[in-house]
Sequence to fold (177 residues):
Amino acid sequence: MKVTTSNTKTPLENQKEVDEFLARQRRAQEDSQWKVSSDVKQSVAKAEKLQKKIAKQKETAKRKPRKLPFGQAWANRFREQLLGRTITAVKYLNEEECGHWTNSTLALRLSIGSTPNPHKDIWAIASQDDEQNDAGVMTFCTVVEPDKYKGGHLEEIAPNICKHELNKTDHWMNAKK
Fold:
């Protein structure tokens, strides 16, 4: 007698496949419910609201420039032109450079790099007021107490010198010690 094999499954094997299929369907349905649950919807809505608020703040910041204290605003105007420069010359102004001033003051040549360039250099010159009515005193200081300063002798003030005394040689600085 011939034995034939059937591709049909036993009812037990069929039930097992059906149970696995139904389990997968339930998991898919739970995943789907989780994705659209009200908690998730609320979180997404909050995130979108926050993103809109941030975008609005950025737009407002673009339109309204930040208000700086007066001193900081002035410092910002000079920051780019002064930072990184090197002092390449130190001198007192001569009579011609003093012009209408009765006194001479210390002048510092600030160069980009270490090589002076008359087309790019800036001279720092102290004046007594913002109308430049006369020469001003330049003050030098440190952020540490004088007895803790390790940079050698610190001359604290560069005084004004009457322009008619600029070329004088008989002064106290030339006196023998």
Remarks:
- The first strand starts at residue 85 and ends at 92.
- Residues 17-63 form one domain.
- The radius of gyration is 41 Å.
- The chain has two domains: 17-63, 85-168.
